[in-house]
Amino acid sequence: MRVVVTSRSQERAQAAADALGEGAVGVGVELTEVGAPEALVERALSELGGLDVLVNNAGAGQVADSETLDAADWQRIIDLDLTAPFRCSQAAARHMLAAGRGVIVNISSLTGHVGLARRAAYTAAKHGLEGLTKVLGVEWAARGVRVMSVAPAYVATELLEGTSRAGGFTLDDVAGRTPLRRLAEPEEVARVVAFLASDEASFMTGSSVRVDGGWLADGGWEHGAR
Prior knowledge:
This protein is of the alpha/beta class. It has a single domain (60-225), classed as NAD(P)-binding Rossmann-like Domain (Rossmann fold, 3-Layer(aba) Sandwich), CATH 3.40.50. The chain has helices at 10-20, 36-48, 71-99, 120-140, 158-167, 171-177, 186-197; strands at 3-7, 24-28, 53-56, 102-107, 145-152, 208-211. Helix 3 runs parallel beside helix 4.
């Protein structure tokens, strides 16, 4: 398997590629810059000789009171979490549609399905990403390109540690609210993405798979107190 790994930092992208081993290429890119998604796709085509799968995983979180949320902070989240995935999908699809095949997987969130206080920009972006998944999934289906989303709950990452500090909650709080009583591991989300990208999911498009440990299924008001 050959893959292009991206990050804002070329150093981090290359480190991830090195960890994956032969066939992986690291590319540093700021996806909110004009022309960056198109340049990334062209680089991938140049390095790999083709493009079969796009995973839109770039994103950032934000915790802020909605009544004082700065316009620039709102726009930053929308640009990275919603506009960049659309532009990457658009650039990739031009080649996938011409080839008559391809898979796009958008990494959404449980906040693509529910609202959480003090996360106006992030929740709006993820709801938008779920809507975008549906539109592209049905628009491109007959031309051989499948589009799906994966909606994780809280995942054990460095990003979550920063979000928890800003939001005033702990990782134990999150685990206590989750029916499976723990956070997701990155590998658990990755395995679902790999399944959706494979031929095993060949009749799936325009849909969202929730990898949330039962979070969205649980309507019990007493759950967090257990």
